[in-house]
Write a structure and sequence with these properties.
Elements: H1 3-29, H2 44-57, H3 64-89, E1 104-105, E2 109-110, H4 111-138, H5 143-172, H6 179-186, H7 189-201, H8 203-208, H9 210-220
Antiparallel strand pairs: 1-2
Helix pairs in contact: 1-2, 1-4, 1-5, 2-3, 2-4, 3-4, 7-9
Length: 221
């Protein structure tokens, strides 16, 4: 299995993860939320986690109990590291925080969710990945073109999302929005929406920066 194949699997699982997050958030919050670090409909944490499960555990197909527990471990490591890296690189604040829930680890990982991902891991190895593999093989003659287009779009999205987060970081550090930024945002609706989306997408950021979120919301109105 070459890099192109792995990249496309990450893309497909990232898109699937985005759909799952949208449905879950709609059930819990009763509203559609564009979740994730990227602007586009992808949640790379799912893509990386699910692809790792396939690469590391596919040889265990037929042993669902082992796949279940090992998938839990992979989920734990991926979510913990992602939470830690996002916190240290950007807002010095957890993007999500499970501290108020039982069975959490440092507020970064919620163990019952790991159980859910254990089940997901079994589905990945036994059912989902064979379907994704057939889908990729179906477009075999066009894989180079498809991969190139997706990669370019991903790089653009990742670069701009990172720019937005680093720019927003400067203002969240002081928990205030200077007057010059307010005036700028009034004339740049897209930027205001992106700033608002980042804060609203992650529960702990939303609770930590309520005052700034209100300002963004008022500007958009």
């Amino acid at each position: 299995m070459n890099f192109e194949y792995i990249f496309l699997l990450i893309f497909l699982y990232s898109f699937l993860g985005y759909i799952v997050e949208m449905i879950f958030c709609f059930i819990v919050d009763k509203e559609l939320t564009n979740r994730g670090y990227l602007i586009g409909p992808l949640c790379p944490i799912y893509g990386v986690g699910a692809t790792l499960i396939f690469l590391l555990l596919n040889s265990l197909n037929g042993h669902p109990v082992m796949i279940f527990f090992l998938s839990m471990c992979i989920c734990f490591v991926v979510e913990y590291l992602t939470s830690y890296i996002l916190e240290k690189v950007f807002y010095k604040n957890k993007w999500w925080d499970y501290s108020g829930m039982k069975f959490n680890v440092s507020g970064r990982v919620y163990l019952p969710y790991c159980i859910a991902f254990g089940v997901f891991g079994v589905l990945v190895v036994s059912f989902i990945n064979p379907l994704f593999t057939k889908l990729i093989d179906y477009f075999g003659d066009y894989l180079h073109i498809i991969s190139a287009v997706i990669l370019i779009l991903f790089i653009v999205d990742f670069s701009y999302s990172t720019y937005i987060n680093l720019n927003l970081k400067k203002y969240l550090a002081n928990k205030r929005i200077p007057k010059d930024l307010k005036n700028y945002l009034k004339n740049h609706e897209v930027t205001t929406k992106l700033y608002t989306r980042i804060i609203k997408s992650f529960s702990n950021l939303k609770s930590s920066y309520k005052s700034i979120l209100k300002v963004f919301t008022s500007i958009r109105k």
